[in-house]
Amino acid sequence: MVSREVQAHNSVVRIGNVPVGGDKFAVIAGPCSVESEQQLMSVADVVKGHGAVALRGGAYKPRTSPYDFQGMGVEGLKLLKQASEATGMPTVSEVMEVGQVDSLCEYIDCLQIGARNMQNYGLLKAVGETGKPILLKRGLSATIEELLLAAEYIYDAGNPNIILCERGIRTFETATRNTLDLNAVAYIKQRSHLPVVVDPSHGTGVRELVIPLSRAAAAVGADGIIVESHLNPAEALSDGHQALTGEMFAQLMQELKPFVEAA
Ligand code: PEP
Ligand code: MN
């Protein structure tokens, strides 16, 4: 069970050799989509150089329009593995269907369940059977209770290695892509022993808001962030408007220093 009533101490989930949920604030960074070897390797080097502990990148992309870039598929997973071996950073990537689980497990260290699949119970059971670390994102219109029960599906299938992710929810507000619900972070930390990370990229949809909301996430007690970065956002094949440039990523890490370095 994911409730604090059955386990009082915080769970620490390891992505490769990187603990999430311990004393250090974990910064997971990388592009929205893996686009090419050059794109991935260059951004991986930059985020690693500034202190990211894990690399994110989507190879299977849940796009609103079927005419938009859908991801590189297995070729993207192989590039993530290559980038991981080159930088030493473990990887996080989204699995969209049960049929993709085996290849994700072969190439990737932590499987992301995207917001659109938070209540895909067949997929939750399938990733629950892998034993791999799972980053479970809150659904676009899911309550906190529904998120915790989705996590329970993974846990009940035999996998306690779950990281919860607040990535913004749909509200009446349209100035930003989503409304980042930082209440959820503080609330879940009370209710559950699982680590919680924040995604300020999808939470805001606006590059300029990512650094302030990352600071807010650290201040409210999140265990880390998962953030999108691209060295040439204007050319990005997805979510370029919310990607941090290399310079902005450096600035982010500078501002998070007290949290990242906490003993
Ligand atoms: C992503 O991480 O690129 C993504 C699609 O996230 P979400 O499922 O939160 O929209
Ligand atoms: Mn994205």
TrEMBL record:
- Regions crossing the membrane: none
Q: Which GO terms describe its biological process?
A: aromatic amino acid family biosynthetic process
Q: What is its EC number?
A: 2.5.1.54
Q: Tell me the keywords, alphabetical order.
A: Transferase
Give the superkingdom in one word. Answer: Bacteria
Query: Boundaries of each DAHP synthetase I/KDSA domain copy?
Result: 18-258
| Molecular function in Gene Ontology | 3-deoxy-7-phosphoheptulonate synthase activity; aldehyde-lyase activity
Instruction: Please give the name of this protein.
Output: 3-deoxy-7-phosphoheptulonate synthase
Species of origin reads Grimontia sedimenti
